[in-house]
């Protein structure tokens, strides 16, 4: 129960942070450990002449310059629209990520900041991920047996006599 309250509190705080920091251009993104996250540059048109830099704090983690991509790790990828994809995020990935998009003349055309908050997967989420598919499978098996028994126990109709 305490885990659910903590998750609900994080969600409420995150919504508050998005609304507060949204006016300054920052976006808060929540993720569960082990998931894939996309820090989305919405409504950005990327051309072959753009220079896109992604940093986490002061460290450059990815860049596209004249269509040449460089990524700090295989966990990180800049997508076709300039958004950043992070695979298998963990608690150490928490932090502020900044995207800078420069036009062909080297002028800054977009500067956007994201705050990534990674939460651990709770025991109840793990159990739910296992039990729900098992329950669905059990229901399907029961339905199949019920249909089979009705077909086997069917009385012959008048036309079959």
From TrEMBL:
Q: Name one Pfam family in it.
A: V-set
Going by the entry's taxonomy, the superkingdom of the source organism is recorded as Eukaryota
Secretion signal: which residues? 1-22
Q: Give the transmembrane region(s).
A: 127-145
Entry keywords, A to Z = Membrane, Signal, Transmembrane, Transmembrane helix
Q: Immunoglobulin V-set domain location, by residue? A: 28-119
Q: Which PANTHER family match?
A: CD48 ANTIGEN-RELATED, LFA-3
Give the protein's recorded name.
Answer: Immunoglobulin V-set domain-containing protein
Q: Taxonomically, what lineage is the organism? A: Eukaryota, Metazoa, Chordata, Craniata, Vertebrata
